[in-house]
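Appendix B, Record 12. Input sequence as logged:
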Amino acid sequence: MNAPLYNTEILRLAATIPHHERLPDAMGSAEKRSPVCGSRVAVDINVGPDGRVSDLGMLVRACALGQASASLLGATVLGKSTAEIASARDALTAWLAGVGPLPDWPGLELFTPALPHSARHASIRLAFEAAAEASEAAAAKAPA
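Logged structural output:
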């Protein structure tokens, strides 16, 4: 794998994170931090009566890889269920560890050059880990 770890698309995504403000009175919130590099991502989620994500807010203080991952999450998480987010998180973790296929989430193939760089994996996972936890908390508060 000779592709550069940081490329134009990674940097573009890092600079264009959607939903980049915290939600007031979020139904579910979670913050994750990478112990390796100190990157942090906080995610706030509201869910609708159907249990699917209706609103998202994020505060991202991460390296370009963590920012790009948050951007990809934010671009398509609205309308996803808690189970879909948890599945994406688990698939991303497995793929980065080399024990699973590319996750079914738009754009994650962009991180293929990071596969041999295990120290970068935590940053790439942060947004998905925080979103899964925040979504579970929000779903628990959703009216039945």
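The CA atoms of residues 15 and 119 lie 22 Å apart.
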